[in-house]
Amino acid sequence: MxxxxxxxxxxxxxxxxxxxxxxxxxxxxxxxxxxLGFIVFLSLVGIFGPIFIPDPQKTDFEIKNMPPIGFxxxxxxxxxxxGEFTTTVILGRPDHPLGTDSKGRDMLxxxxxxxxxxxxxxxxATGIAIFLGTFIGVLSAYSGGWVDxxxxxxxxxxxxxxxxxxxxxxxxxxxxxLAIIVLVIGLTGWTGAARLIRSETLxxxxxxxxxxxxxxxxxxxxxxxxxxxxxxxxxVIVMATxxxxxxxxxxxxLSFIGLGDPMSTSWGTVLNTGQHSLDTxxxxxxEPGIALFFTVLxxxxxxxxxxxxxxxxxxx
Amino acid sequence: MNSTVLKCGISAxxxxxxxxxxxxxxxxxxxxxxxxxxDVSGGEAETLNWILAADASSFGYVGYTLESLxxxxxxxxxxxxxxxxxxxxxxxGLVYTITIRDDLEWSDGSKVTAEDYxxxxxxxxxxxxxxxxxxxxxxxxxxGKNVYVTPAVINDTTFTIKRQTVQPEFVYTLYNLIPYPxxxxxxxxxxxxxxxxxxxxxxxxxxxNLGPYKFKQWLKNDKYVLSRNPGYFLGKYDGAPFxxxxxxxxxxxxxxxxxxxxxxxxxxxxxxxQNVAKxxxxxxxxxxxxxxxxxxxxxxxxxxxxxxxxRKKEVRQALSMAIDKETIAxxxxxxxxxxxxxxxxxxxxxxxxxxxxxxxxxxxxxxxEAMEMLKAAGYExxxxxxxxxxxxxxxxxxxxxxxxxxxxxxxxSMSLLIKQELAAVGIDVEVKWVQWPTLLRQYMMNREPGTxxxxxxxxxxxxxxxxxxxxxxMGHNTDPLAPSGSRVFFASDGGLNSFGFFNxxxxxxxxxxxxxxxxxxxxxxxxxxxxxxxxxxxxxVDFITYTRxxxxxxKNVKGIEPGINxxxxxxxxxxx
Amino acid sequence: MRSYIIxxxxxSVIIAWGIMTITFILLRLGPTSPVDRYILxxxxxxxxxxxxxxxxxxxxxxxxPIIEQYFIYMGNLLQGKWGWSFSTSQTVYDLIASHWIYSxxxxxxxxxxxxxxxxxxxxxxxxxxxxxxxxxxxxxxxxGISIPGFWLGLMLIMVFAVYLGWFxxxxxxxxxxxxxxxxKQLIMPVLALGIGELAGYLRYTxxxxxxxLRKDFVTTARAKGLPEKTVIGKHVLRNAVLPLVTIIMFxxxxxxxxxxxxxxxxxxxxxLGQVSFNAIFADDYAVVIAVTLIGTFLVxxxxxxxxxxxxxxxxxxxxx
Lengths: 316, 576, 320
What we know:
The complex is a heterotrimer.
Chain A: H1 4-7, H2 16-27, H3 30-52, E1 72-78, E2 85-91, H4 107-143, H5 145-160, H6 163-174, H7 178-188, H8 191-205, H9 208-215, H10 220-256, H11 267-275, H12 283-310
Antiparallel strand pairs in A: 1-2
Helix pairs in contact in A: 2-12, 3-4, 3-12, 4-5, 4-7, 4-8, 4-10, 5-8, 6-7, 8-10, 10-11, 10-12, 11-12
Chain B: H1 2-27, E1 34-40, H2 56-63, E2 70-72, E3 78-80, E4 88-89, E5 95-99, H3 114-125, E6 139-142, E7 145-148, E8 150-155, E9 158-162, H4 170-175, H5 182-185, H6 192-197, H7 199-203, E10 213-219, E11 223-228, E12 245-251, H8 254-263, E13 268-270, H9 276-280, E14 285-300, H10 313-322, H11 325-331, E15 337-339, H12 367-376, E16 380-384, E17 387-391, E18 399-404, H13 409-423, E19 428-433, H14 436-444, E20 446-447, E21 464-465, E22 471-477, H15 487-490, H16 504-513, H17 521-538, E23 541-554, E24 557-558, E25 574-575
Parallel strand pairs in B: 1-12, 18-19, 18-22
Antiparallel strand pairs in B: 2-3, 4-5, 5-9, 6-7, 8-9, 10-11, 11-12, 13-23, 14-22, 14-23, 15-23, 16-17, 20-21, 24-25
Helix pairs in contact in B: 10-12, 16-17
Chain C: H1 2-29, H2 36-44, H3 49-59, H4 66-78, E1 84-85, E2 90-91, H5 92-127, H6 132-146, H7 149-163, H8 180-185, H9 187-213, H10 216-223, H11 228-267, H12 272-281, H13 285-313
Antiparallel strand pairs in C: 1-2
Helix pairs in contact in C: 1-13, 2-3, 5-6, 5-9, 5-11, 6-9, 7-9, 7-11, 9-11, 10-11, 11-12, 11-13, 12-13
């Protein structure tokens, strides 16, 4: 099926029929829809959840290390004078359904506010990376010549640089705040997008409708914005969706090794706390991991389905 | 016939063998096995070239292969090691005479002499090209200038150190002295880079018979392996040490380390408070609960850029009253801590229980009492949302900033619990976690405003730090034998007095303790009692707790004497 | 062809130089200083920090102007002198030489594991398309690429080491690399590291095989009466392998850093991952640059090898 947009120059239409077509293809993939569903759920939780929960940072040492509902754990306090222990059994309670951590913070509240952080980091960092990548890719392909060469060499250097090491270095040097983490992930993750966009643009550039536009007197900028970018948009959307899980994992990994923002409650930070009490308060390590897993899984399902939906060669 | 002779012969051999075996069984314990000590990765040493090191772990690692002049048992009695007899101090307190044993040898067989010790002091520790980190311990103030003490060789086994001022606690510094081999060090003298990278010093290949163990292998962040030193100078009496190998194994988290102890994969490690009950019940593990030198304080910023209320003694007392020490001991240490009231721990011979002001425990605790004290000091309370809020002199609610470093669950929890405690008396505390270098540079270092002063931790009365702060949480190790070392915090010219405490009475007391007047032990005891009292009343810092450690050993380790210095006889431990 | 290889090599050297310079600048000109970790200990003892700072800097040559330090360092590097790691008190060479084998064995085993099972299961799934096996493989592959590797590692330790006691909770360097015990204790780390890769290869192999199974030459081969095994094993697989090689190579490049290092940290394997992270935290630039360069050269070499393998596998591809 030919893309109607390609024939009508000068009008980057958001064609309703096209959207409907893509949605039809997407909805045939049940896993994909399930993934989308979870993403929507997560977004709702992330956006509205923090309004309804108590402050996740609120500590209460009276209820620290409380297990999730249905479990129980022993806590023994020592008396120096007598050398005896007083053991109390701590039961899970419904007002802290997922338990608390070693400082008495409610796990559910932390996971919910962590959802917001993960989504924010995922969206923002991916946004920065994709934007930068698209920009450089299109610019490079369109300019050609030494500009193209220089940009691609620079991309090569950035690509060969061990990504995670670079991340660790920069976050360590400039301080572990969420803003820096988002910025750094975005500024180092654009290389894949740049490469791909560049090759797509190169192939589109030679198509007839571009020549036609030029013949009609369209300026370079107009061509870039009105034709090129909309045409790579489907590629960009798929790339973005599939990059988000990687970004979320990168932030979690950074927090896990201690480079996260210590005052935030991102899932990675909670995991970091949890790994030290694996033998006693195991839920602190298990729960954020499950949250991370389902989030990444959903994005992968959804992104995969999107890719198949957009790909004309895939028969659905 | 031949077989009869053979049988007689064999039985003779068997009898002889049995006799030997039984005899040796009575004499010494068998030497076998590896003693594996577990530690968490933060405790990895910097270097084995100890004169360059700044961390305690490095000295610890080296200590397995090189004995110091003496160490202390659990009651702080001196136990001689390389010393032949105890150090003699002249009646005027200015000349120290050190006599070492005559059976100490370097790895090349040459004797360790007084020359090695004096060389180590004069040419290495006191040198400019090496710039020893702890040279302050060996300097004295003479006419306003810092000069080094004067070592001198008397004969092969004796040397002296002459001072110009009396410092009765200098002897404790002496006991820790370890020598470098002069015959190797002269090759690198003057060249700090070559000295740093010298293979002999980084492999500890020169240690001879000076320690129970010899260096074998160091795989960074994994393990430090020592092998038994059969020539150990103290081993000639009973065959010590009794382990073939001594290993320090690093773990990423204490959870994994404790699981290893439980599984029997390691011999010894520290146990976290929440796991102690479980380990004490285990049949295969012995857990010893012992006092430590570690204590925690909240420093109140009395400089110009802190809350002005902190400059009043009564306010500080009130805050310390509001922070309940037993609660902290129970909630954060699960009972493995005791309330602290001064920089002198209860294990110290200088400790006196009846002089200090015990804030933070009954009867000097309680939120109501604290609020009354604050009101008496001239501060008012208002009510907001049903809660009491303390108002400052400017009429606005008091908001204090507590700065500390993340990374330790204990420190983080304490800072948050303190925030909770102070919230109950109407004070809003903001807890800020910053990395150590930032904490040191922006909050603890200070300088006089409007000048170009080089920032230091204590630049005098008028100096302030770059960033404003009100409280910080710190952990310290005290020296129970020589508590006057804490003068770095509490004296007006103390190098670490970043919170700005200036008190003439305290200054004079510290001076007296470290002078001729403090030479008599009874006098010194009185002085320390007075110091502890004054400081606990002034409350420049809130002493919170002294921690107890829990040390877990496999049951088959014998020879352990639990106490604050329980490692002092570790070379006699054995498996049974 | 030879000139192509030479060009690539020169090109790699330039990239390596670029990376080295960026790393150097970051670590030396950034706000953190190698002296920071010493200052802490010294301050705790109440000593005068400034004079000690100066002496420490003099000791490690950190007080000279940055440009001079840079050229001295580069000069040494060109002579093959990797420098002194002040955070671990040994030469950078010794440090890396004693730790690299632990990383290498982990990455090698994980990759082999992932290739064998990933490609194998992928082929199986393709051949049995739309059956329950296929469906299960699909789900499994999604799970595999979504599960956070370091969390999986933690869970494995918790379940199999702490609760069940089947394995030790940590990696013991006491065993010889070639011993059975060593292999046994690598099971969990290899699983944690390899499952992600495995899942990726599974998906790729399945889809590539499905693509090829539809193609005309397969119908022809079947019409010719060739046994199914030959059709799949010889023809289909051959065509699918080429891009698979790219993916494997690309994966190797990316798990060498990041994934493998996190696994090392979780399981306590003293490989280059731990070494490089600790070096970063200590601002020990000589070590960081060394490890980065090793990884970079590895990746560049892998890329070159991939491109060359291409020409072997697909004679249509040619470089000049």
